[in-house]
Amino acid sequence: MLSGMAVWGGAGWLLDRWLDTKVFVPVGILLGMAVAIYVVVVRYGSVDPPAGKRQNSTTPGGRRSRPRTQKGQR
Question: Where are the transmembrane segments (predicted)?
């Protein structure tokens, strides 16, 4: 994340020097931070379930759910 802030902040600093303004450094730093967070979320955001496991085979607590039967049957 630091490199994104440094690169885009540096680009904002160069743009500020060229245009003689003082607004692009903070914009560049914020843009660099946002892009870095986006890249981290895309790269490491979701974990795929292991192969061979069904999604609905366990309850939220991790225990296996009992099979459903009709009323009066065992």
Answer: 23-44
Residues 5-24: pLDDT tens digits? 899 999 999 999 999 999 99
Residue type, 69: T
Contact 10, 29 (CB under 8 A): no
Which three-class secondary structure string do you get for the chain? CHHHHHHHHHHHHHHHHHHCCCCHHHHHHHHHHHHHHHHHHHHHCCCCCCCCCCCCCECCCCCECCCCCCCCCC
Exposed, middle or buried: residue 36 (CB in 10 Å: 0-12, 13-18, 19+)? middle
Q: Count Cβ atoms within 10 A of the Cβ of residue 4 and give its class: 0-12 exposed, 13-18 middle, 19 or more buried.
A: buried
**pTM, 2 dp:** 0.57
